[in-house]
Design a protein that fits this description.
- By secondary structure, the chain is α+β, with helices and mostly antiparallel strands.
- It has helices at residues 6-10, 18-32, 41-57, 60-78, 107-111, 118-124, 127-130, 139-143, 163-168, 238-243, 303-314; strands spanning 155-161, 170-176, 179-185, 194-197, 203-204, 207-208, 211-217, 224-226, 229-237, 245-249, 256-260, 269-272, 289-296.
- The termini are far apart.
Length: 316
């Protein structure tokens, strides 16, 4: 009979704590779940092995027995014994503990029969017979609900913020599972930024999921965001564009004066360094404000103004 290395299957060390084992199991189970890999026989077999490994390592009594068996098995090999000749019979017949509240995996429910390996059934007892001690792990245990999104016990909520709140940072009151709490939205958040709130998702057999707030930055009336930069159209009157001067420009820090050089053309862009959005993961950096000149042509002029424009036209 083939010895199963459950630590290797879950890719954890032999001294891994229960939290580490649980986390490794959940990640692998989601990756290889048959609903995510339809028709993939190799993924299905891997999924079976993952569940079998967790059924042993996730149960204190099962793990203790497995560790004792493993020490004997490896000692026998180190002494030159053949793996094929190792006597497993002394370890047979030990039904698993079935701890109160533990959820056992019924592979028959998932695959219509053909569950755990001969190694597992011989050493730890028949998993299908024991599954009534808890409840079978079906798709909803991994993904939250049958036919639902692949979010598991984690929950996502969309939160709308203004551009000013994205610039300054914000707080939001969130309701989840009947409780209300306040969380922070960091400076520099963009549409699509996820704020993780640990332990505020749905409860399940293998722990508590997390709540993810997905940020949506609402459109602004005058600023357009491009990454960490902001774009802004600045109206400049004809005389200032021709002769030069200063115009007032709004920023998220308050208005400032922009110098317009003589002969400025419509569509010309001036960069105001550091006046854009703060970087999400580097508080020392900010994007720039890109100001695009729009020549403001007067539409209502008096007789004197018209006469002066006509004089200018005659000078061409």
């Amino acid at each position: 009979m083939e010895y199963k290395d459950y630590y290797k299957i879950l890719d954890v060390s032999k001294d891994a704590d229960n939290k580490t084992i649980k986390r490794a199991y959940r990640q692998l189970a989601r990756k290889y779940h048959p609903d995510k890999n339809p028709g993939d026989q190799k993924a299905e077999e891997t999924f079976k092995e993952i569940n079998e490994a967790y059924e042993v390592l996730g149960d204190a009594d099962n793990r203790a027995k497995y560790d004792r068996l493993g020490r004997n098995y490896h000692r026998y090999q180190n002494m030159g014994g053949s793996a094929a000749d190792f006597d497993f019979s002394q370890w047979f017949g030990g039904a698993a503990s079935g701890q109160q509240g533990r959820v056992h995996v019924d592979m028959g429910d998932l695959f219509g029969g053909g569950g755990f390996s001969d190694f597992f059934n011989s050493v730890f007892g028949n998993a299908r017979a024991r599954s009534t001690a808890g409840r079978s792990m079906r798709q909803e245990d991994l993904y939250g609900r049958v036919g639902g999104q692949d979010t598991g016990l984690d929950v996502t909520q969309t939160v709308n913020i203004t551009l000013e709140e994205a610039y300054e940072g914000a707080t939001r009151k969130v309701q989840q599972n009947g409780s209300q709490f306040t969380t922070k939205i960091p400076r520099g958040a963009k549409t699509g930024t996820k704020v993780r709130i640990s332990g505020k998702g749905n409860a399940g057999p293998y722990g508590q999921g997390d709540l993810y707030l997905v940020v949506n930055v609402m459109p602004h009336t005058i600023f357009e965001r491009a990454g960490n930069n902001l774009r802004l159209d600045v109206p400049v009157d004809v005389m200032t564009a021709v002769l030069g001067g200063k115009v007032q420009v709004p920023t998220l820090d308050g208005p400032l004066q922009l110098t317009i050089p003589p002969g400025t053309q419509g569509g010309q862009v001036f960069r105001l360094k550091g006046k854009g959005m703060p970087y999400l993961r580097d508080k020392t950096k900010s994007g720039d404000l890109m100001t695009r000149v729009k020549i403001a042509i007067p539409t209502d002029i008096n007789d004197e103004q018209r006469r002066l424009y006509e004089q200018l036209a005659e000078l061409k």
